[in-house]
Design brief:
about 25% helix, MIZ1-like_pln, disordered N terminus, globular, alpha+beta, about 260 residues
Length: about 260
């Protein structure tokens, strides 16, 4: 069987002719014609012979499930995975007179694998970054049941409450949050940006007026993700020109 190359972009799709060819190849691999066991699986169960009765739908067999998976993948409706590799996209954003949020994405169009809001004003983080290197540490506690081996240890990005430190100074807590409409609006707006910083217009209230927090500031970059263990990860901002000197921003996730 010849290799099938997937489309390069999300919007691209196979033609119907290619799709039908894939389905036929899957059926060939599955044994071509259905055998007696397949016919028994796909046959309608307890169907009435009365023509006026609603026809029974046969249970979905293996080939039907394969077809559904292929249709979802080719049409682009399959959910994008949130798994993280060694390269991720990090976005720091927040209203000018609000708190900072930090999002980690494995793919620009994927939902954030981690989205936290720090108890730190956006203006304070901007001052820290203007002064030079910034080191942000997020530290969470291991639950007592996990510490004695009675429970399953959650993934580090699934922890919800963190103690936050910036350049060695404690700056309150960070809480994991769901990606709401406002967060989605920002991430979609900066989706084409691989690395850079800027300002977005403020969100509007239900009455159509700008919110009091002011403009939305953001900084977006690619990070190198280094996993030390299940309890420690580090994110180092990558320099686009490839020069040395160390990353200007580093974020550490620790579980103690």
């Amino acid at each position: 069987m010849s290799n099938i190359t997937a489309p390069a972009t999300h919007e691209s799709s196979f033609s119907r002719r290619h799709f039908n060819w894939i389905i036929s190849r899957v059926e060939d691999l599955a044994g071509g014609r259905r055998n007696a066991e397949d016919e028994e699986i796909l046959a309608p169960a307890n169907c009435s012979s009365d023509s006026e009765a609603e026809p029974c739908r046969p249970p979905r067999g293996p080939l039907s499930r394969i077809r559904s998976a292929l249709r979802a993948a080719i049409s682009g409706r399959a959910a994008r995975p949130t798994g993280l590799g060694s390269r991720v996209i990090g976005t720091i954003f927040g209203p000018r007179r609000g708190h900072v949020r930090f999002a980690i994405q494995g793919d620009p169009r994927a939902r954030p694998a981690l989205l936290v809001e720090l108890d730190m004003p956006t203006a304070s983080l901007i001052k820290e970054m203007a002064s030079g290197l910034v080191r942000v540490a997020l530290e969470c506690e291991r639950k007592s049941s996990d510490a004695v081996g009675c429970g399953k240890v959650a993934r580090l990005v699934e922890e919800r409450v963190w103690r936050a430190y910036c350049n060695g100074r404690k700056c309150g807590y960070a809480l994991k949050r769901d990606c709401g409409a406002g967060d989605t609006r920002v991430l979609r707006a900066v989706e084409p940006v691989s690395m850079g910083a800027g300002v977005l217009p403020p969100e509007e209230t239900e009455e159509g007026r700008p919110r009091a927090e002011g403009e939305m500031m953001y900084m977006r970059a690619r990070f190198e993700r280094v996993v030390g263990s299940k309890d420690s990860e580090a994110l180092y901002m990558m320099n686009p020109d490839g020069k040395g000197g160390g990353p200007e921003l580093s974020i550490y996730l620790l579980r103690v």
